[in-house]
Design a protein that fits this description.
0% strand; mainly alpha; Tetracycline Repressor, domain 2; 11 helices; 71% helix
């Protein structure tokens, strides 16, 4: 008697690409709705309709709307902490990457929506905050390299430095319109590095 297992496996294989396509369609639909609507008005039903998927398919992969939204946000490119051997150059390189991501639609519309909703939505905050902590890692890497090279003091407070570096960009981009040019941010970083007692500043 022939073993039926290969036949079963052969039947399952075609379903895998379709499952992947469905997942990508769901993420695209979620991203589009985040760019077009208020967070509160987005529902799993709307995502399912736009993605032409069933709600059960969505819930099997993402237990809540918040998990689905964060999955869409997590698809944004991560910053890459290049090592040019110079702290200021490395930070400016990260900033350029950050601008390329957040100035492009739909990223420029989604971030303010998530930040505003997170302030009064504990369920969103519970999944959003850990992701944002991971998004800070490239800046941490650059700062730790600078400490190892002797550009920053060994006792530098990395977390406070990350807050200052990332905070000014978000503040100028979303809350207090300001100069986001590379020369303007270079001036800010120079002042910051001086306050951090960086070598040469």
């Amino acid at each position: 008697m022939n073993d039926p297992l290969p036949a079963v496996q052969a039947k399952r294989k075609p379903g895998r690409p379709r499952s992947k396509r469905s997942e990508e369609a769901i993420i695209r639909a979620t991203t589009a709705l985040l760019a077009d609507e208020r967070y509160a008005s987005i529902t799993v039903s709307k995502v399912a309709a736009r993605a032409r998927a069933s709600k059960s398919t969505i819930y099997r992969r993402w237990p809540t709307k918040e998990h689905l939204v964060i999955e869409a946000f997590n698809r944004w490119p991560a910053l890459t902490p290049h090592d040019r051997g110079d702290l200021l150059a490395d930070l400016l390189n990260l900033y350029r990457q950050f601008l390329r991501i957040l100035h492009k639609p739909p990223s420029n519309a989604i971030m303010p929506t998530l930040v505003a909703e997170r302030a009064h939505n504990p369920a969103l905050a519970a999944v959003f905050d850990p992701l944002m902590q991971r998004r800070r890692d490239p800046v941490r890497v650059v700062l730790r390299r600078a400490i190892e090279r002797g550009e920053l003091p060994r006792d530098s407070n990395i977390e406070l430095a990350v807050d200052a570096i990332m905070g000014v960009t978000v503040l100028r981009m979303y809350f207090i319109p300001g100069n986001l040019s590379i020369p303007a941010i270079r001036d800010f970083l120079t002042v910051l590095l001086r306050g951090l007692k960086a070598r040469g500043y």
